[in-house]
Each structure stands twice: as structure tokens, then as C-alpha cells.
Amino acid sequence: MKNNIITKIIIGGLLFNGLYGFAQKTNLEVDVTKTITKIQPTMFGLFFEDINFAADGGLYAEMVKNRSFEFDKPLMGWEQPNTKRSSLNMQSGTAVPIKVSGNKTNTNFCRVLINDDKGYTIINEGFRGMGVKKDAKYNLSLKAANHDGAIKKIIIQFIDKDKKVIGETSIVPASNEWKYYTAQFTATQTEAKAKLKITFEGTGTIDLDMISLFPEDTWMNRKNGLRKDIVQLLYDMKPGFLRFPGGCIVEGRTLADRYQWKKSVGNVEDRRTMMNRWNVEFSNKQTPDYFQSFGLGFYEYFQLSEDIGASPLPILSCGMACQYNTGELAPVEELDPYIQDALDLIEFANGAETTAWGKLRTDMGHPKPFNLKFIGVGNEQWGPDYIERYKVFEKAIKAKYPNITIVSGSGPSPDGEHFDFAMQELKKLDAELIDEHYYKSPQWFRENAARYDKYDRKGPKIFAGEYAAQSPAADKSSNRNNWECAFSEAAFMTGLERNAEVVNLCSYAPLMAHEDAWQWTPDMIWFNNLEAFGSANYYVQKLFSLNKGTDLLSITKDGQPLTGQNSLYASAVKDVNSKEIIVKLVNTAATAQEVTVDLKGSKLLSKGSIITLTSPNLQDENTFASPKKISPTESEYNLKGEKAQLNLPAYSVIVLKIKMK
Ligand code: AHR
Known about the structure:
Layout: H1 2-20, E1 25-31, E2 37-38, E3 46-47, E4 78-79, E5 87-91, E6 109-114, E7 120-124, E8 130-132, E9 137-146, E10 151-159, E11 165-171, E12 179-186, E13 191-202, E14 204-215, H2 228-235, E15 241-244, E16 274-275, E17 291-292, H3 298-307, E18 311-316, H4 336-350, H5 356-363, E19 374-377, H6 384-400, E20 405-409, H7 417-428, E21 433-440, H8 442-447, E22 461-469, H9 483-498, E23 503-508, E24 512-514, E25 525-527, E26 532-534, H10 536-546, E27 551-557, E28 560-561, E29 568-575, E30 580-587, E31 593-600, E32 604-614, E33 633-638, E34 643-648, E35 652-660
Parallel strand pairs: 1-31, 3-15, 15-18, 18-19, 19-20, 20-21, 21-22, 22-23, 24-25
Antiparallel strand pairs: 1-27, 2-27, 4-7, 5-6, 6-14, 7-13, 8-13, 9-12, 9-14, 10-11, 10-13, 16-17, 25-26, 27-28, 27-29, 29-30, 30-35, 31-34, 32-33, 32-35
Helix pairs in contact: 4-5, 9-10
Bound molecules: alpha-L-arabinofuranose.
The site of alpha-L-arabinofuranose (AHR) has 13 residues, from loops.
């Protein structure tokens, strides 16, 4: 009988909670009078890596794949539908001079031999097609050497998937010598999988190189620039920093294929193309056509940082190749070239026009310094080999540039033997800013909101450099950008924010992925050749970034931070510029919850606003068909007295903003 009554009470309670929300109310207190710490302007930023076609085929708006015939298979990406009537040969190596640039980094060109005048063609397939938009203009450029003036005309066309022409222009290649030609044309139809068809009139031989095509409409209308829609998504986040160029791509599978920034600056056609490490990284997600043209190189990364108001944060190789691959090591006594790269990079970014590297920056179009404040030594290295190398870098960088903050790494995981060792050693060295990486389950994120509550306030600062909740598990290609992952990250991020005394920078990773050419999932932004959208995770990051405030306040329940009690999480800040108190709340429960926020001791206006990000199902996600399914809604909020009464929907992230008097 007694058991029956208890069962009835429990069932009744469950029903009540399910239908009407939690019976209990959670009372929170914000102490508006006391600033715990200033929030760093860098608090929420971006991690960029050329993975998932994020640079070539993504952010970098070049539409021609293998434009300079430098892939390992030099004709990859180029079709020859009517080779029977003629032949197309590659001539490679330095024996064939490229007179226009005289460089040795762009070693191949394409020699086309045309035997008759029936319209010989070559076709570029683009990066899984080319996205073209009706009435948009496209700028073509190519280098050609027309032997004995044999070729009378080059006809350039967009063709759709049925080979119908949807845009056309032509070039008359007037010179025997290498010469650049440009032409502009307009697409007559929108097509996601267009191709570029090049037809030759005349017979004989013509040499071609750097066949390039960009939309005219790029970010800030820069010629041969970046994809406007993707940069807009980044800009909209008001990111505090931009980390580049990765990620594992910094390290390389071997030292020879590490990212070398000096090879990514200067004339675009002199930047040597190389295979992207993600081309072969995962046996189940091989991407044989993934190369780095470096058209998006370090100058462009600095420029992008400036454009979006983010502090540039480059990470460089520390003389250790990826330990998941070869783990190749540069001996400590041979680290000089690696260290010189770091010192020269600081000069490239900040040096006067009169310095060697400052002059290159100036010649490339940016006389003003880029105001570099951070530099990273290594990405995800671990063990004593890393600490040994880090020390050498630190000494050299600080000797010349004492004001540059050095980012060190703690390995690939936020716990375990490698992590503990790195933290212990880096603390001993008084490291300034340690990069931690977390690719864990959504549950881990919810359970670790208190992770930094006990971190030493006098120890190294933390860069939460790569995080993303993994459903179902790290390295699974079935991982989704679902709502459970996103709100679990939000729960964790209240913990990052509450600990802004130690956590100075945070970024989700990876940043973006091409729908048809990704290797790693989940990713914050998804794009194809026509469109891009932010995942639910994007909107969580954006909410935190746009509402980061300037001063950290305490928010507690019974004197304790809210780190998952009743499935609730919270953080609070003040913004002295907008004169607002901003409270972030996350409800990870399947039911709505009533919360009272006592804004103690504050002089507040009654008017405010409330932003809600929610979705009813854990598996919900944004898609190309429904890109804003999970996106914030904002409404007015009227404060009555000092206490805000809130109903937090099930699975929700809430930002409450109240104006101060
Ligand atoms: O973000 C993808 C990869 O995850 C990065 O390249 C690496 O740093 C981490 O292992």
C-alpha cells in the first residue's frame, strides 16, 4: 500500500513535470556590484584550418581546381572530352622556362596540341562543381604562350550539368610569349555543379598556366578574394581572435610537409602547391583532389583577421611532425630555421616597412602593421620532446619580442597522461597561455562545466582552443551538429565564462566543411558551392561572442556556481559600453524550468530583452533545406523589481539582457 502511494506520487510528479514544467523554482543571485575580472576582448574567437575544403574549394573563392597543373597528377580536375582529335600533354620541370614570373615553384604548365579546327576542348570540374549564380559576373584570367600565333581564339564557357552553355566569353591570345589575359563574363543561370569549358579555335600548339576564375562579388570586393557569404558568417560573430592555419596542418605528416608560412606569401603564382595532409588522413574519407594552393596564405589570414576585427593568432611548427603520423623530430640543435620562421613572422606582421619582412607586407599592400600579439609554438604535440623544444622557442621569442604572448600546447586531449605531463611542465615554466583541446561526448561537456573552478588563478592562462561535442564519438563520420551537442557546449561555455580569470580565449573546431568534400565532422559552418549556413553550434558560439560583456559577475544558487544542479548552468557579465547586465542560462533538462534571477544591488531599467535558442529534440539540426531551424529569437523583457522571473524551455540556451541606469 505504502509502495503504491509512493509510486503514485512519483508518477504524478513526473506527469506534472512533463506537462507543466518543473514544480520547483531555482533562485539565482547575481552580484552586480562586484567585477570579478575583466573579460578579455579575445574571449570568444575562431579556429581556422584548411580541413574539409575550408580554404581551397571554400573560403578562398577560386573556382578552378588545379589551376596551375601542380597536383601530383598534373591533369587532375581537367577533362579532355575529345582527346581523340588531338592530344594534351604535360610538360613539367624547370627545363621549360616560365618567363612571366621566372620562378621555380610553379613548375608545370599545360601544353595543348591542336590538330584540327573542330573545337578542341578542355573542361575544369571545379571543386565538386562550380557554384554560379544567375546574372553574377565572373573574372577569368590565364597565362598563355601561343606558339606562332597558331590559336586564333579561346572560347570560355560555363556549362551546366546537361552541358548547356550558361555563360560565355573569349580571349584572343595575341602573344607567342607568356602573357596574362583576362576576361569577364556573366552566368545566365544559377547552377550548383557548373563546369568551365575551354575551346580552342585554330590548329597548333598553345601553352597555358594559372587558369583562374573568381566571382566578382567577393568579400570587400577584393579581386581574387574570399567567399563573401562565408566571411559574412564569421564577421557576424564579432570574433575576438582568428587562429590559423590549424590544427594538424601546422605539423605536417612529415616535417617536409609542415605548414611553412614563408611559402604562402608573395605572388600567388609563386606559392608552391602541395598536397593537403587531410587528403589521405582517413582511409574511409580519402580526398585525392585535396591540395593547398596557398592562394589563401598568411598575408590573407592576417588581412581576414583585420577585416573581421579579430586578433591574429598564428600557430607554427615547433620542429615536430604530427605524432599520430610519423612523429618526425627536428633535432634540438637544428631548430634554428624553425625559430627563425617564428621571429620573421613577427617581423612580417609587426615590423616597420624598412625591415625585410615588413617590406614584403608593405609590398603586398599593407604598410600598417597587423598588430600581432600572440604566436603559437606547435599544435597538439606531447611528451618531453615538446617541452624541450618549447623552451628553446620561448627563450628566442621572448629575447627579441618580450611583449608577444606565446601559446603552448597540452596535447590532443584535456586529460590523461600526456595532458597531465604537459600541464605540470608548462606550469613549472610559467607558460603564459596553454591550448587545451576537447573532442568529447555531449555528456562530458555537461559534466565539466566546473572544470576551471579550481584552476590556479595565478597559473598559466587557458586557451580553450579546440572543442566540439562528438555524437556519437570522436573520429566518427556519423557525428552530427545536433542540438544536444550544441546546448551541451553552451553549458560548458558558461563554465569557461565564469572562469574568465583563467580562460582567456575559446574556439569551436573545426570551423567549416564542404558538404561534398569533408573529412571531419562535426563542423561549425557547412557550405556547398552556392550556399553556407551556421549549425546550431554556430549560433551558440555567436550568442556567447556577441554577449561577452566587459566584466565578469558572479551568479550563484545558495552561494554556489550553477554547474548542472537541476540540469541548469549559468554565467553573468556586465557590459560597461552598452550599459547592460547579461545573464546566460542553459537548461539541459527535457522539461521547462522556472528560474528567478535576483539582480542584487543594481540600479536597472525595467526594459530589457531575452534571446532564446531552443529546439524540442536532441537530434534536431540545421540543414541546407532548413538553415535556421535552430537559431535565436529575441523579444522584449520587462523587469519588475530586482528579480527577473524566467521560464526556460526544455533544452534551451537563454540570454537575458537588462539595461543599467
Ligand atoms: O580540428 C581538427 C583536428 O583536431 C585538428 O587539426 C587537430 O588539432 C585536432 O586533433
